[in-house]
Here is the input.
Amino acid sequence: MADEPVLRIPSLQIVEEMRESYMTYAMSVITARALPDVRDGLKPSQRRVLVAMNDLNLGPQSKYKKCAKIAGDTSGNYHPHGEAVVYPTLVRMAQDFNMRVPLIQGQGNFGSIDGDPPAAMRYTEARLTLAASQMLEDLDKETVDLATNYDESREEPTVLPGLFPNLLVNGSQGIAVGMASSMPPHNVTEVCDALIALIDNPAITLEELLEIIPGPDFPTGGIICGRSGILEAYRTGRGRVTVRGKAHFEEKKRGRTDIVITEIPFQVNKTTLIEKIADMVKEGRIKGIHDISDHSDKDGMSIVVSLKKGENEEVILNQLYKFSMLQDTFSIINIALVDRRPCTLPLKSLLEYYVKHRIDVIRRRTAFLLDKAEKRLHIVEGLLIALDHIDAVIETIRSSPDVPTAQERLMERFSLSEVQADAILRMQLQRLTGLERAKLEDEAQKLRDEIEYYKSILASEKMVFDIIKEDLLRVKSHFKSKRRTEIGEPIDGIESADLIADEEMTVTFSREGYVKRLPMDTYKSQKRGGKGIIAADSREGDYIERLFIASTHDFLLILTNLGKLHWLKVYEVPLLTRQSKGRAIVNLLHLQDKEKIKSVVPVRDFSKGDLVMATASGVIKKTKLSAFARQKKGGIIAVDLKDGDNLIGAKVARPDDDIMLGTEKGISIRFSASQVRAMGRTARGVRGISLRKGDRVCDMVIVKEDRTILTVCENGYGKRTKRDEYRTQSRGGKGIINIKTTERNGKVVAMKAVRADDELMLITQQGKLVRISVKSISTVGRATQGVRVMGLNKGDKLIAITRVVKENDDHDKVAENGVTEDVAQDNANNNTPSKDGPEAGDS
Here is the structure.
């Protein structure tokens, strides 16, 4: 018996074997499972689902087919990992809250943003969308390489032709071994425009691309806070962006406010978000929430967070951003496969690889069509030769004993190729008619034209680029949509104003110190004589004292009695509803004790114009607006005041304006603004009026042609006087009599430039308010005592008078009248269009 062979088992180092096996596994996961291809933006499982649906002819116009059939064919033909693995891939490509432009159109339950799972595949149906159809377009024209499937029974494409720019539009998420891809979706219109711009200018810079694609555009909307993360990601391929849900406030009855959340960050589960907020309320981490309910429906998302009475909605919303998923971070990791190797790609490289892929697809498609046209022309030319010698052809065929002999004789006698001879032998007798001959001649000419066109494409790079641009314009027209995700300011508030939309707002200040802004379209246009709309649900005894029409880019310069100046951007003023009372100004500015607002001046351009300030001691100061261009937290000193002095007013004035100061003892002085020289911010100013002993300046006005000068005293008496009765004097003089301040009148408390149709609000020490019309006050001479304008209780005194803003007028009047004297002056100095019409509020 022969010796049996000895079985030898080789020895292996386990460390080396583990390393090699794991590397093989890792590369398989990286290149054939988890990462998208840079050309079509698809992972293998996604690509195979689309190819299987294409095999089933499930186009955008076809009937739906059961997902069980689709998943079965995908698993059986291309992806041998089971239907349970294929179906979730199919579902995700049909979810509009995950895909910016879905590739599959589903029928049935495909899950929801609440985290609800899809129905079983036996219940749901699907077909391809137009976007997926464009991804597969020209697949049968040898445009991409094919590879055998897992059992070598058929071939599958290694990449799709990808007319639709899927990678940038829909993004991709995948976890491989040692790396992960997290590519955000973008707006299809912006992507197409960027690709066209790149084709037109291959040297285009990142800054120019950012003007076209400002950032990701998530299907769930939201607000991206700041651009620094976007810039970093687009420059290097990696970055982090903070995304906030979108919310607004709704004022309810009994002083309650609702926070209504209409959009949430990308890939945040709505139900989980609501449960998280509810848990934090129970734990006491967020206080002030009365109830939370989900009112979402087919028309959109609506999560209503009802607050307790008196709670500050801004504080609660900030707590929701801080503690819940209403604010989330999206990590951008642009890793995709380039020639089967994972690469981290910046924005421009992603665009360039798409264009490169489309160039290859179009050239291969053109070469395929050229070859097909040349082959067909070769056959048609053979048929035409046969028709030209039809009798000889028939004789040759009839005299041949069999088909091969006939083919050989035709080739030899008429100098035909084997293909042409075979086509002649297969030619039907109907081709012998004159009509059929004309058709063949037309077809031959058409084929020659096509061949010339195809050759010109292959010879011209410009024609290839033109075709790509035409395809992109077609995609853009099919899927054109508005941006859903806003690019907002960073959370820390440090951001260029260019990121804030430049739009006009109505800004109001109330007597009690409440401020708010509203969009201009809040006040709908009405016909003359309309009843108007309710402007605000003000507190008892409160009313609107100042109203401005200002851009969100404008600054509000807020000057106080202590001579300090504070800055407030218009977009920093809370955007509230028309009925809202507003937000307390003390919550927006760092005001000291006993510091009161005296003037509010809207400014857009600090490079032009002068700010004129007056103090109680008769000092007048003019400073270039440019001196106040640099903001400082807590404000700055705008005028250096002596002890016991205070700022009584500030306005923007033109050099040809006349300024009038009025004192408590009834003296006034009118002088030209050009007499006040401009001085530095830290200067004290110059003398505007020489005061008599014990007298103080109480008000300042800019003299207008269409105004009368209203003066009111503390005992409730006042008068109106025409401006021409106040002659112009030199600055620093003692002035002239404005009103006789007798024991009956008391001291002067205010002086205003008014129109006859204005209304006034009178305020007393005891808190009594009276609203009167300017028409009810007589126009009399300068050196008179005036008439009673308000009856006072014993011991009471009139302390202030302000003009009432008619915010409840129709929209046209708000647009015309809602410009203060300050705004009109500012517009004139800044060479910006002013809004003509009477003042709506005076400092």
Q: What stands out?
A: Confidence is low (pLDDT under 50) at residues 493-500, 524-536, 807-843.
